[in-house]
Amino acid sequence: MRLPYIDQNPTMDNAEDRAVLERVLERRGGKLIELDRALLHAPPVADGWNSFLKAIRTQTSLSTAVREIAICRVAILNHAWYEWDHHCPILRDSSEITEEGVQYVLKAPHYAKDADSPLDAKHQAVLAYSDAMTLDVKVPDAVFEKLKSQFSDREVVEITATVAAYNTVSRFLVALDVGETNSRSGPAAKQ
Prior knowledge:
AhpD-like; mainly alpha; Carboxymuconolactone decarboxylase-like domain-containing protein; globular; peroxiredoxin activity; 2 domains
């Protein structure tokens, strides 16, 4: 990482920062990951991040496969291998996606056509939407309409927020080289 990580068991300077640390530890099951150890250089930022990502990861109505396709595709497009390493196993464990589907998320060309995909229409719509939001920001009407035809308004907002959130995550990870993965040109060999 381009900055030193904070200690695995940090002592925070004041009660407010200690409360932030406790909230992050609670969400993480008692152990900080490298991302937390970078964010906790700025406890108020870490606190907002923790709350927002908790909502994205655990409080939406999206299936694991839908959420993780969005997250994993953003990781691939942004070369955020730390993110991919953490989320690919979650996608792989999803009962909705085959190993062929996981590999497609990893290797599909940008804006891949539906006929080329082992993913069903719903998951293909998420992949195309993630590509558009990440690569172009402005989503073409045809891509949006495919997504809208597969999901409720609530789910569209949740997918949009997930893609947006993980673009933020990936940019933070890559800019600071969290997890020291920037030198890689792709996923770890075990993927």
